[in-house]
Amino acid sequence: MWYKKSIAKLVAESEQSGEGTLKRTLSSSGLVALGVGAIIGAGLFSLTGIAAAENAGPAVMLSFIIAAVGCAFAGLCYAEFASMIPVAGSAYTYSYATMGEFMAWIIGWDLVLEYALAGATVAASWSQYFNELLKIFGMALPNELLYSPWVEHHLADGTVFSGGIVNLPAIIIVCLLSLLLIRGTQESSMVNNVLVVLKVAVVVLFIALGWQFIDPANHTPFIPVNEGEELLKEGKIGVFDFFKEGYFGHFGISGVLRAAGVLFFAFVGFDAVSTAAQEAINPKKGMPIGIIGSLVICTLLYVLFSYVMTGLAHYTDFKGDAKPVATAFAKTGYTFLNTAMIVTIIAGYTSVILVMLLGQSRVFYSMSKDGLLPKVFSDLSKRQTPWKTNLIFMVFVSLFAGFVPVAELGHMVSIGTLFAFTLVCIGVIVMRKRNPHVDRPFKTPLVPLIPILGIIVCVLMMASLPLESWERLGIWMLIGVVIYFIYGKRHSVLRKEIESGKE
After folding, report:
1. Which PANTHER family does the record match to this protein (predicted)?
2. pLDDT grade, residue 225 (50/70/90)?
């Protein structure tokens, strides 16, 4: 269970082509678009207002920069691995080479949950904005077909609705995008590129048009005063009381840091680029460009967007506001942007769902090729796509999106992502010691400092998540461990090769 895949074997697998392998169709620009498509979504349009109103005020732009730096630590580690081992599977594959088969299984099983719940959660939100778009044209779906059953839903008008039957639009969008992926990665990439261009264009338009309406008074004070920090400076309270009384994170320097923690998850998604390594035309060059390029572009857009947003409306206006971006838009006089923003959010959510479904199927494809899962998950169509895996997950994710209140499982997406980030950072340190002479087209700078900082940031973020998230993750992992020992370990291709003397 601790067998490790050699780098030479992984590189050989990545260089295979023809029947039975994934088709290479993604250019460097396509990989950047894939990353931007996965990153820009709900985080930009919802978390910005929350972080500004409750934690950082106008200094939310500083929080974005801090969050980006923290995310970049993991991103640089991903870039080294993706250029060195350009194989589908992302953190699963990297763990196989550094920490052995069992840890690779654990992280692969974790990634499946991450991508599934992320796709389902975004699909559920997508349906709400789709219905808003229908209302503009005088149409709307009944609430019974917009909400999952069994729980109460608090609607925008303040009422409580508990008669949900199914979230029908969420199921439809998951099915449509799954069928698109089955048709081919190139076609999926073309659709994703169009969606990315659309949402980036509207974000840039908001920044450009909103800039002239910025009221400098809204940026004052830039960092709102934290009463607890003032009392701490004056010696009227101790450090223990500062945390006990709940002062930490409510504005001041601590608020900027707390907001950075909240906004860290607005950058999650770049790791999905590495799952498409075997579909990149030139992975050794394209993967680092895709990962780092998407992070840089999104950071720039996030900082400018938050600056304009908090300049158009005072940060206190976003308190308890379910649609903070619309509140800011109202200050511009360009009312047509409200409709454009709804279209943009729909486009943003669509591209995120698409990339999550892509990443999920590619992780299962890699695990199946290694014998840890049944061969059905690595069967390819004539278009060289894992169509059976796509169909299976179409059903799986659709059920979550349509019938389960996945919003309360959102923290599990975060904890799964951070766990993967942590193992990748550890893996870079391990590989530098174990395989120092392996060709690395891209090298993470300042090793081991950068990976260690990445580990610290990720562990701190994980520690801040609710206990329930850890419990649910534990149950999912327990199921995975049982499957590994019942099926995966016995059918492992690497294990059979080593025991037969072929490896």
Report:
1. CATIONIC AMINO ACID TRANSPORTER 4, INNER MEMBRANE TRANSPORTER YGJI-RELATED
2. confident
